[in-house]
Amino acid sequence: MKNITIPTPVSLLLIAVLLSPVYLIAQPSLQKMFPVHFSEVTITDPFWKRKQEVVASTTINTCILYTETKTGRIRNFEKVVAKNGKHEGVYYDDSDVYKALEAMAYSLRNKPDKMLEAKADEWIEKIAAAQLPDGYLNTYYTLTALDKRWTDMERHEDYCAGHLIEAGIAYHETTGKSRLLDVAIRFANHIDSTFRLSKRNWVSGHQEIELALMKLYHHTNQKRYLDLAVWFLDQRGKGYGKGKIWDEWKDPDYCQDGIPVKQQTQITGHAVRAMYMYTGAADVAAVNNDSGYIKSMNSIWEDVVFRNMYITGGIGAQGTNEGFGADYELPNATAYCETCASVGMVFWNQRMNMLSGDSKFIDVLERSLYNAALDGLSQSGDRFFYGNPLASDRNHNRSEWFGTACCPSNIARLVASLGNYIYTTKGNDVWVNLFIGSNVSLPVGKSNMQLSMSTGLPWKGNTRLEVIQSGKQKVQLHLRVPGWLTEPVPGNLYSYIDTAAAKPVMTINGKAVAYNIERGYAIVDRIWKTGDVIEFNLPMQVRKIKSNQALKENRNRIALQYGPIVYCVEGKDNDDKAYNFIVPALTRFDVKYNNDILGGVNQITFEANLIQPASDGKSVLPVKKSITAIPYYSWNNRGAAEMQLWLPTSIGSIRIAP
Ligand SMILES: [Zn+2]
To answer: How far is the CA of 386 from the centre of ligand 1 (A)?
Structure first.
């Protein structure tokens, strides 16, 4: 190896400044709104604050335990430094270290913790020490065959780099320490030189670096990272991946590499890869005003939501490709619905909302967040689902960890950074997207507006916003009118059986006010003063949902929803059985909050017809029985149990003995 002088981060920056002819030139953005960083948002919400505390106290420690003790993920970095030892685990395992660090960074921002920060610093030193002089950093190749690096597009080197970049930025934002960020920048520059600047083709086998580079671009204002993100997207669909990430046996659409990204109109293949890539593409579109990406993604979004999404907001029905199958093929018991894919749905829909200003994307984000994603994390915080099926014969249970452990740290980083998804702003406009109790300082016009939100959601429909401080300027406030008031999801994949009052009631300082709804938001425009109180009451009742007939498994079945939460029946509440009843057509549903189970949840009770074999062994006897349903996300927190979400309404769809 040649003796290379390693430039310091500062000198690198200086060189970049001196050599780069193009700086970030502010362009008018297509973006309709901008996110409010979670560091400006203090979550006070009883529901979510508790989740964040569980992540901080338990989930992150579980990630640490498995990353450095119970598996060799940290040892791999130590071995690189020692130049001795065999790589442990799988070639993409470095990514879990970075994602855990990212979760730690967000959690430290919410709640400073000296010991946790010291642990992060310790890991960061090991990571930095394992970086090669040319910026390359990957323990798998460094410990196995360095001469083979960048020869196999499938081996996730760029995917690991993406997660390193995200972690570096998060840790820098939280602590002001740039050690990890500098490592990430050196690696990003190495990748840029190796591929884009050398005109060498490379199709990422697992997209993620695109969105990470966009974060790096925004964090550093260096255009080369935007260019590199665009370059990665542009590499796809040109055949460069043939024989590399796909071949005659593996469909190019599995890798979203069949056609160029801007020509894609349908969702295909691996769900997490697709979500990460479209998130990155949306980030690019927001900066480049590239309508090609937007057109493509609107079409893909409809394909996901209209034909390929579970009622939980989960996506990727098949385990074989960890991804999408044929339209309307959404089996329940074998639903794959990887937790990471739902996390990806949150990312992508947030970006689509900001590009369009349309609340329908938040409707989907909220559905994925409260149901399919949250299901991935146990109440205790130290058990996880990788897949999130909608029915189980007691055979699907939470795990402490996984061989491929992408999901635990992914749900941890999402929950810890939840404040990112509540508010958006632009100019003198403020949007409230999610109803989550929080205090926030929002940039509005030339000053700041401070709001305090409290809410009964997801259990009750009342939300209260108090203006803590406001400049003397008009502010247009947009409160999201949840789509679930009128339809479960856009499109006709699912629909309510019943009708119900749908319009929220708004009062300001106790007086009812009329409002207009635009793009799914209730709008009030006025000069706000300190102490103003807006109350926004969403009418909530149990809604029965039916599926499009094309979803064969759900024929003669209903699902129950109350507010943003989808419910399921678990054996634990029903004499160990969840498969032995049908829901009669005229059933009354009662909702009651129970603080004593599952950390406090609404339970829905109703009288069903219990179906038991008759003594003649030939016929069945219906017997009345009270059935209790719980939030889907909360199932399997009390041990193995039967569970189903789509409840039979006729004897033909029942299974007495699973
Ligand atoms: Zn995962």
So the answer is: 6
Distance CA 417, CA 436 (A): 13
CA atoms of 219 and 222, how far apart (whole Å): 8
Asked whether the bond before 458 is cis by omega within 30 degrees of 0, the reply is: yes
The two tokens of residue 233 are 């997207």
pLDDT of residue 28: 54
Residues in CB range of 505: below 8 A, 6 or more apart: 512, 535, 536, 537, 539
Q: What is the largest CA-CA distance in the chain?
A: 89
Q: Report the C-alpha gap between 113 and 325 in whole angstroms.
A: 44
Residue 268 Cα to ligand 1 midpoint, Å, equals 18
Cα of 314 from ligand 1 centre, angstroms = 12
* Region 73-78 average pLDDT: 98
Name the residue with tokens 């929950």.
415
Q: Which residues pair with 526 in a beta bridge?
A: 475
Whether residue 588 is predicted with pLDDT greater than 70 in this model: the reply is yes
Record the pTM. 0.94
What pLDDT was estimated at residue 68? 96
Higher pLDDT, 648 or 619: 648
165 within 8 A of 215, measured Cβ to Cβ: yes
Q: Which of 399, 394, 382, 529 is nearest to 470 (CA)?
A: 529
Return d(Cα 237, Cα 252) in angstroms, integer: 8
Q: How far is the CA of 574 from the centre of ligand 1 (A)?
A: 31
Based on its alpha-carbon atoms, the radius of gyration of the chain, rounded to whole angstroms, reads 25
Residue 464 burial by Cβ neighbours in a 10 Å radius (0-12, 13-18, 19+): middle
